[in-house]
Design brief:
The complex is a heterodimer.
Chain A lengths: L10 H41 L6 H46 L3 H4 L4 H43 L1 H48 L1 H6 L3 H53 L5 H43 L20 E8 L9 E8 L4 E6 L5 H7 L8 E6 L2 E2 L5 H6 L1 E4 L10 H5 L8 H10 L3 H6 L17 H14 L4 E5 L7 H15 L3 E5 L11 E6 L2 E6 L1 H7 L2 H17 L2
Parallel strand pairs in A: 3-8, 3-9, 6-7, 7-8
Antiparallel strand pairs in A: 1-2, 1-4, 4-5, 9-10
Helix pairs in contact in A: 1-2, 1-4, 1-8, 2-4, 4-5, 4-8, 5-7, 5-8, 7-8, 12-14
Chain B lengths: L1 H8 L1 H11 L9 H8 L6 H18 L1 H11 L7 H4 L5 H12 L11 H54 L2 H6 L2 H43 L1 H7 L3 H38 L1 H6 L3 H54 L4 H43 L3 H4 L17 E9 L8 E9 L3 E6 L5 H8 L7 E6 L2 E2 L5 H6 L1 E4 L10 H6 L6 H10 L3 H6 L17 H14 L4 E5 L7 H15 L3 E5 L3 H5 L3 E6 L2 E6 L1 H7 L2 H12 L1
Parallel strand pairs in B: 3-8, 3-9, 6-7, 7-8
Antiparallel strand pairs in B: 1-2, 1-4, 4-5, 9-10
Helix pairs in contact in B: 2-12, 4-8, 4-10, 5-8, 5-15, 8-10, 10-11, 10-15, 12-14, 12-15, 14-15, 20-22, 22-23, 25-26
Classes of the chains: A alpha/beta, B alpha/beta.
């Protein structure tokens, strides 16, 4: 009935918590026992009163009731403290594990995984699994014990009456079991509709000028009205299901009482049942209502949890294509030459190759310029060098050895890369600059900041280098982010520096001055520079012009100008642009 | 314009950072906010009234069950002792007796036979079942009415926010990150949903239920009731304590969770950087630390929940113990009955649940308060008329003349009121002419387009269309003259065809024609569903060149009098670039056009060229005139030939 198989991969995590779960089960046993004692004691009291024998025992009976509940209070307190707490521990470990796992996955995984999907693994899926090991376990065990104790007591009093009152209670379980998944499914649809509303708003707010220019504001509001109305109707659909299940709970719960009143009442009249036993029965029924609801609910939790567990396992089973399996004992990149031999690369789900038969040989300390239009394969080329993605075919060599022979740690230690979209963490500016080195002195951080010409701007922030990125009011411009990212890269003192169009957001004057400043640092480095601004690579040893993943032109700046091809055309266009910018 | 582009680029990042900027805030109950929220219920007075009535009757009906059990125990089921004989029936009991006697049953007495008693039992059970049935229906009705009311309010509020935001001027969008605005329309409204559908009315229902039960208890046996209810202050105190701690930890959990999620999101987006910098271990450790803090917060809140539930339970059983001892004594003395004992017992179990719920509902109220405050702040920020003078509307003449001339007359403009972006710029475009604007980034080219479409009004000078100030005409009619193509192409998540139609009254035929005119037919042919192919967010499935062509088609499909084009500089492959160039040439021919130009080939063909620099109009004239003049433009052209 329960899809336990889905949770098998969690066995090591569960094993750690096993002793605690065992204690939890014992505690739940005690909880259920003390819980069932209460109606029994009430029944006993009534029996005494009814018969008039042992009336003086009423006081002690009442005390026993309070005693039973004290025990129950303690045990149920500790049940939560053990079982629910355990589930939180499992949740934490599972989340840590998941995080660690995805840290090791490469481009082949990330290129086909949406951030939003991965986020929901971390949030809703982990929570669903947690619910299984917390509330679901707790309530299913408790339901089982309570059922056993309450039923055995009820059967002892009158097995036929037990049967009659169980029927409505059974319906309770069925109702929850049937309606629960429907509610879940419809809620998921509602969630989708809400994200539709979110996308529509986002697109409208982001494209406000176009919408205003075409004077279609009203039509857009109408669209929103339609979306809102659909969402409205969907929510009412869910409300209807909830209303049905809510009513069913009342109906079947009270129906059990009505049954007891009728059948039990007749038994009393026939003298088969005492008022005291009637009371015990009544109490047991009241106790059973919640566990019977919980039974249906718990089953739903198990199923939902199993689906989530499967999704989690799929991620945990994903193996990186990039690993140290072919690594030899290389401990460092010595010189830093970079060579590509007929390298091709295709994204896992790409139709056309992103790179096709690219070859070049860059000596240590050399500079390679890579230019080309958007999506021509420039970034893909850079990504192959630190093995963010593996090449589909061909060889990438560093110092004449295939990069797979370097342990990842060694390889990446000697490479610094600044991606196209500079990425800053929500930490202080100093922490962001020192991100790649762990511990850097303040002087070192300031030194590299000066190199990329951002030191004066940082000094102007209220908290200087300790300013947190993204804090209210302090938003860095694109150019500032890019320069911080460059500072981070050069602070790592790499052998090989990869720059992916990193100064697109600063004006050409600043760019020249930054490149000027970096010269001393980068003189001995091997540098691969992707850029849209050709002036940044005029000094390069070789320039590759990429188009559709292929090298269409190559040579030094002057050689390429001679060719009067794509490069020289681009160059002309940019000269005119910079001329315009330089106007006084 | 550069700042805007950067803002666009950083949009995704900003969304993640919102987590930090906007920590989940709870807000104590505010009468002012609540009052303003209540105003949204006004259109649904009927529904509100109905729901209140349903809640009232439901609460009343739910009180009947235990009463009937009491009557059964004291009536037909009671042992024929002296006490029952002299018992006076009251209230419901009397009603039932009347009912039963009306049906021909003889009243219960000491000597009533088992058959008579059984008949009475059937009557009671029948009434119970009947009220149960009514209750089920009404409970269903209650839930539905409540949800309908709540959902209606949500929808109204959502549309109001959306409508309001959409009316805001360009500068509003510069100041507010899109991600944050979207939150207002979605999650903030959702937080209120909870309040309206479950929170608010459950609150009323619970309070009613508690009051009803207390009244019934006192009515049945005041002495016993006052003893049982002596536990109530204890319950109230423990509830209050619990509420305080639970809220504290609840908030802590939410804060930690938001932090953890933000960290996760950031790590996923920045994974390349983490990997290349080999910071996987450090990041994982940091993650584990934040995760651990969340776990601690969870464990702490478990403690309070674990403590609270047994406490409530304990109090309820202490109350039961009081009933057993005191009730037992009174039964012995004959001042209470077994039926009353049952009544107290059943009511007690029903009393403690709503009391427990109330504490939890309070959290809901607080986050709803915080959300509504954020929503009202947005609704109270109105920049609609700050930018565009309102006196312009309504139109003085709705039938517009066809356009003969657009004239900028000594126009000056500044976005912030300090830094001038345009200074004393004058020029004109006549029907059928093509005007090209040349200049460096930040020279004021895009501002000219913004003024032309009246996204802003000039600070100095004026814009004339056919010799009349555009402020004297309807804003909408003015904008309808133009077909705008911006550099940032806005492909939306709707079908390809809808992206071109763009909510206007344009036939499919015309859409296809427009696509053909801009060399875009191939894009349609490539899609499985042709024009009906749904587009992904931000037009992901299209190349940047294709997106550009779509926006051309969109502008062209409306047959605009004036084509306004911010020529794209996006780097597209050679083939697409040729197509785009050809499309521009074809679109511009014979149509009044204003083009922010980046390619000299486009500029060259223009009837008039403006050279802008730092907000000043430096040169103006045809290609030949400007070349002859030997100024900036001439230098640019020379440069072009040199390098060729």
């Amino acid at each position: 009935m329960f899809p336990f198989r889905a949770f098998r991969f969690l066995a090591p995590l569960i094993r750690e918590q096993r002793p605690i779960f065992a204690i939890g089960v014992v505690l739940i046993l005690l909880t259920s026992l003390s819980q069932v004692a209460v109606p029994r004691l009430v029944g006993l009291a009534i029996q005494k009163l009814e018969s008039g024998i042992g009336v003086d025992l009423i006081g002690p009976i009442a005390l026993a009731m309070v005693g039973a509940v004290l025990i129950r209070g303690l045990t149920s307190f500790w049940t939560r403290e053990t079982v629910i707490a355990s589930s939180r521990r499992i949740e934490k470990k599972l989340r840590d594990q998941l995080y660690e796992h995805i840290s090791g996955l490469d481009g082949s995984f990330y290129s086909k995984t949406h951030t939003g999907d991965l986020m929901s693994r971390f949030t809703s899926d982990i929570e669903a699994v947690r619910m299984v090991f917390g509330p679901a376990v707790m309530y299913s065990v408790q339901t089982a014990f309570t059922l056993i104790f309450a039923l055995s007591m009820m059967i002892q009093i009158d097995w036929q009456l037990t049967l009659y009152s169980l029927i409505p209670l059974g319906f309770l379980t069925v109702a929850i079991r049937v309606i629960g998944p429907k509610v879940h499914r419809e809620s998921m649809r509602a969630q989708e509709m809400l994200s539709g509303i979110s996308v529509h708003s986002q697109e409208n707010f982001a494209n406000a000028p176009v919408i205003k220019a075409f004077v279609v504001e009203d039509a857009e509001v109408e669209r929103m009205q339609r979306l809102s109305h659909d969402y409205f109707r969907q929510n009412l659909r869910i409300a209807r299901l909830r209303a049905i299940s809510g009513s069913a709970m009342w109906l079947f719960g009270d129906l059990a009482l009505v049954t007891l009143l009728l059948i039990g009442g007749m038994r009393i009249l026939q003298g088969d049942l005492g008022l005291g036993d009637f009371a015990t029965f009544n109490g047991c029924q009241l106790l059973l209502i919640w566990p019977m609801i919980a039974l249906g609910w718990v089953m739903n939790l198990f199923h939902r949890g199993a689906a989530s567990a499967e999704r989690l396992q799929a991620i945990l089973d994903a193996k990186p294509l990039v690993d140290d399996s072919r690594a030899t004992g290389l401990t460092a990149v010595q010189k830093g030459s970079v060579e590509f031999q007929n390298v091709s690369f295709r994204y896992p789900e790409g139709e056309v190759p992103a790179l096709e038969n690219v070859s070049f040989d860059l000596p240590p300390g050399g500079t390679l310029g890579i230019v080309g239009v958007t999506a021509s394969g420039k970034s893909s080329l850079l990504n192959l060098i630190p093995r963010l993605s593996p090449a589909t075919s061909g060889l990438v060599l560093i110092d004449g050895k295939p990069i797979e022979e370097y342990p990842l740690k060694v390889l990446r230690d000697s490479i610094s890369m600044v991606p196209q979209e500079p990425f800053l963490f929500s930490a202080t500016i100093a922490e962001n600059i020192a991100f790649g080195v762990g511990d850097a002195s303040e002087e070192q951080v300031r030194a590299v900041a000066r190199l990329v010409r951002i030191d004066q701007e940082i000094d102007k922030f209220p908290n200087g280098y300790e300013q947190r990125v993204g804090e209210r009011g302090i938003t860095l411009s694109g150019g500032q982010k890019q320069r911080i990212a460059i500072a981070r890269a050069i602070l790592q003192k790499p052998r090989i520096l990869l720059l992916d169009d990193v100064l697109s957001a600063v004006d050409s004057e600043t760019e020249t001055s930054i490149l000027e400043g970096l010269k001393d640092w980068t003189r001995d480095l091997t540098a691969l520079i992707v850029t849209h601004r050709l002036s940044a690579v005029t000094h390069a040893d070789e320039i590759l012009v990429l188009d559709g993943g292929k090298v269409i032109e190559r040579g030094t700046h002057s050689e390429l100008l001679e060719k009067k091809g794509k490069y020289s055309e681009l160059w002309r266009k940019q000269t005119i642009e910079s001329e315009l910018e330089d106007l006084e | 314009m550069t700042s805007k582009k950067t803002a666009e680029k950083n949009k995704e990042k900003d969304d993640a950072e919102d987590f930090y900027v906007e920590e989940v805030i709870d807000r104590p109950f505010s009468r002012e906010l609540a009052g303003r929220l209540m105003r949204y219920l006004r259109p649904y007075k009927g529904l509100v009234l109905l729901s209140v009535m349903l809640i009232l009757t439901n609460t009343a009906l739910s009180l009947i069950g235990p009463l009937l059990i009491k009557e059964a125990v004291d009536g037909p089921l009671a042992l024929p002792t002296e006490e029952t004989e002299s018992r006076e029936l009251t209230g419901i009991g009397q009603l039932i007796t009347d009912l039963g006697e009306g049906a021909g049953l003889s009243p219960i007495a000491v000597g009533s036979s088992i058959d008579e008693r059984t008949q009475w039992l059937w009557v009671l059970v029948g009434i119970y079942a009947f009220t149960l049935l009514i209750q089920i229906l009404m409970r269903y009705g209650e839930t539905m009415v409540l949800n309908r009311t709540g959902q209606n309010v949500m929808r109204d509020l959502r549309l109001q926010i959306f409508d309001h935001l959409q009316k805001q001027s360009a500068s509003f969008y510069h100041k507010n990150p899109v991600g944050r605005l979207v939150t207002r329309v979605t999650s903030d409204v959702e937080a209120l949903n909870e309040l309206f559908t479950s929170g608010f009315v459950t609150l009323v229902g619970d309070i009613l239920a508690i009051t009803g039960i207390v009244i019934m208890l006192f009515w049945t046996n005041a002495e016993l009731a006052s003893m049982v209810l002596a536990t109530a202050p204890l319950l109230l105190i423990s509830t209050t304590i619990f509420r305080r701690f639970a809220r504290k930890h609840y908030r802590e959990v939410r804060r930690r969770l938001a932090h953890l999620n933000a960290f996760t999101q950031e790590s996923i987006s920045g994974m390349e950087v983490i990997q290349v910098c080999r910071r996987e271990e450090e990041q994982a450790q940091q993650y584990s630390g934040i995760n651990g803090k969340l776990q601690d917060a969870h464990l702490k809140s478990i403690f309070w929940y674990a403590l609270f539930f047994p406490t409530v339970e304990l109090l309820s059983v202490v109350a039961l113990g009081i009933i057993v001892v005191q009730g037992g004594e009174r039964i012995e003395m004959g001042t209470a009955t077994f039926g009353e004992f049952f009544l107290f017992w059943t009511y007690l179990t029903r009393l403690f649940t709503p009391v427990r719920d109330l504490a939890e509902k309070y959290n809901l109220l607080q986050s709803a308060m915080a959300s509504s405050e954020r929503i009202f702040t947005v609704l109270d920020t109105d920049t609609t008329f700050a930018e565009v003078d309102s006196k312009s509307e309504p139109a003085t003449n709705s039938e517009q003349d066809s356009l003969d001339e657009i004239r900028f007359e000594n126009v000056s403009f500044s976005y912030d009121g300090e830094t001038p972006v345009l200074e004393d710029v004058s020029f004109s475009v006549k029907r059928g002419e093509t005007l090209a604007i040349v200049g460096a980034t930040g020279a004021g080219k895009s501002t000219i387009i913004n003024l032309l479409l009246r996204f802003h009004d000039p600070v100095g000078g004026r814009l004339l269309v056919n010799g009349e100030d555009i402020r004297e005409h309807s804003l909408e009619e003015h904008r309808r003259r133009f077909g705008l193509v911006l550099q940032d192409v806005s492909v939306m998540t709707r079908s390809l065809g809808e992206n071109i139609r763009f909510d206007r009254d344009i036939s499919r035929q015309r859409i296809s024609e427009a696509l053909e005119q801009v060399n875009g037919t191939e894009i349609v042919e490539r899609q499985k569903l042709g024009l009906d192919e749904p587009m992904m967010e931000r037009g992901r499935t299209l190349s940047s060149g294709e997106r550009q062509l779509i926006s051309f088609a969109r502008a062209l499909a409306g047959d605009p009098e004036v084509l306004v084009l911010d020529e794209a500089t996006s780097h597209v492959d050679t083939e697409t670039e040729a197509k785009i160039q050809e499309a521009i040439d074809r679109m511009v021919e014979g149509r009044t056009s204003v083009i922010v130009a980046h390619r000299l080939s486009t500029v060259r063909k223009a009837d008039r060229i403006l050279v802008l620099h730092h907000g000043h109009l430096r040169e103006s004239g045809t290609h030949d005139e400007l070349v002859e003049k030997g100024g900036i433009y001439a230098r640019l052209v020379k440069l072009q030939f040199q390098s060729r």
